[in-house]
Specification:
GO terms for molecular function: transmembrane transporter activity. The chain is built from 21 helices and no strands. The protein is an all-alpha fold. The chain has one domain. It is globular.
């Protein structure tokens, strides 16, 4: 069968399965098995176990459930509420300060959890009702948190960066460092837009009359700073060569569990030790989901290669006689469309191994490209038809329609597109820190 026909057939089958609600891992697995049957006949069964389990046979994957456990511990506690309140006290004198507090809380919480849906849920449960109570339109209240939650897959420690590193055999530590500058840049762009929009609409002016003393502001920090210290400690042992990503993730998860138990279980009595079981249950569910996608994606990649689809795509793109920036524009458009339909982990596992040699052949840095790819995935989290963050926000605020949430998040999509443009113009935004700490790649 012609590779083009084979590729289109597999794509059509995958989209049909996804459209009728089959989970991503099972959709990938079923399409892969159908393709392998065409190539090998009934003997394809001999290859399934080897390819599926081979995709999971990486010690680096141990870091994934550890970072998920770290995030689940924080998400189950009132840490998000404390973080939100602390930032509100420091930013209440700025126009739209409450929205800025939510965005800041999202950026920090996402660094702790590494999960966009968890960030949306934790900050949105407190932030959306508070913003609406103070007169903010539902579009701004919901859209800002939906967008802020996307930072969870960019700001380290990031599960998607770990998956990219394993899929492309690149340094996870360098990938984490490459995400710091762009993460700060996107947070700043979100906040700049928020200040401009709120000032133009006259929003948040009532907050200016509320004053907090410096003592009240500092009083909100003790519960927040220990969790920030964990982020710093994890990054320090990782980049100091003291521990591997898996070891750093394990220690970070342990300390998060201890802090939650001590700060909220013993001192404030706002968290019950019986909730510990829920933390491990949520960790297990999300970890198994990601592992299934990883294994199924490995099987999918093997099927693509067996039908010469991967080689044909790579050859087609490589033979395009176009400027390398035009090539990058085409790749960005492809990633953007893929992110509309598939979760970030699935897109990264299916596309990164194919695209990496192409972008390196065009003279682009693989760590810079990881950031570009991740921002494209962030856009997919707040755009239909999948738009996971949109549905999370709609679930915690059902009286706000999906259309309103989408309208509120679209300006932040523009900020992300601007961020990609800035990274293309100034790649050192992503590369300066890893090159400074770990030397040139």
């Amino acid at each position: 069968m012609d590779p083009t026909v084979s590729g289109l057939s597999m794509l059509a089958g995958l989209l049909v399965l996804l459209a009728i609600g089959v989970p991503v891992a099972f959709s990938l697995g079923l399409v892969s098995m159908g393709a392998l049957f065409v190539v090998y006949g009934p003997f394809f069964l001999e290859t399934i176990g080897e390819q599926f389990l081979g995709g999971l046979a990486s010690f680096g994957l141990v870091a994934v459930p550890m970072f998920i456990l770290m995030g689940a511990a924080v998400a189950s506690s009132p840490a998000g509420k404390d973080l939100y309140e602390a930032l509100d006290r420091w930013l209440n004198r700025v126009p739209g300060g409450l929205v800025l507090s939510n965005l800041g809380a999202c950026s920090i919480f996402s660094a702790l959890s590494g999960s966009s849906p968890a960030t949306c849920a934790a900050i949105g449960k407190m932030g959306i009702p508070e913003m609406r109570q103070r007169g903010y339109p539902p579009e701004i209240a919901a859209g800002s948190i939906a967008a802020g939650g996307t930072l969870g897959i960019l700001i380290p420690p990031s599960v998607t960066m770990i998956v990219y590193g394993i899929a492309t055999e690149t340094s996870i530590g360098r990938l984490f460092l490459a995400g710091v500058g762009p993460g700060i840049m996107l947070t700043a762009l979100f906040m700049i837009w928020t200040i401009y929009s709120c000032r133009r609409q006259g929003l948040g002016l009532t907050e200016l009359s509320q004053r907090f003393t410096m003592r009240e502001r500092f009083a909100a920090l003790p519960r927040v700073l220990p969790f920030l210290a964990i982020i710093v400690a994890v990054l320090f042992v990782l980049y100091g060569g003291i521990a591997t990503p898996s070891e750093a993730a394990g220690v970070g998860a342990l300390f998060c569990l201890i802090l939650v138990a001590v700060i909220y279980g013993i001192f404030s009595k706002s968290w019950k030790f019986s909730q510990m079981g829920g933390i491990f249950r949520d960790t297990l569910k999300e970890s198994v989901m990601i592992m299934l996608i990883i294994g199924a994606s490995e099987l999918f990649a093997f099927a693509l290669s067996s039908l010469f689809i991967t080689q044909s795509i790579a050859a087609f793109i490589a033979d395009m006689d176009v400027n390398r920036w035009v090539l990058m524009g085409i790749i960005n458009l492809f990633l953007l469309v893929a992110g509309f339909f598939l979760p970030p982990v699935a897109v990264i596992l299916m596309t990164a191994p194919i695209l990496l040699p192409i972008i390196m052949g065009a003279g682009f840095d693989p760590y810079w490209f990881a950031v570009i790819l991740t921002i494209n995935m962030e856009i997919g989290l707040i755009t239909p038809p999948v738009g996971l963050n949109l549905y999370v926000i709609n679930g915690i605020a059902p009286d706000i329609s999906l259309g309103q949430i989408l309208r509120g998040s679209l300006p932040y999509v523009g900020c992300m597109v601007l961020g990609i443009v800035l990274l293309c113009l100034f790649p050192d935004i992503a590369l300066f820190l890893p090159n400074l700490v770990m030397g040139p790649s």
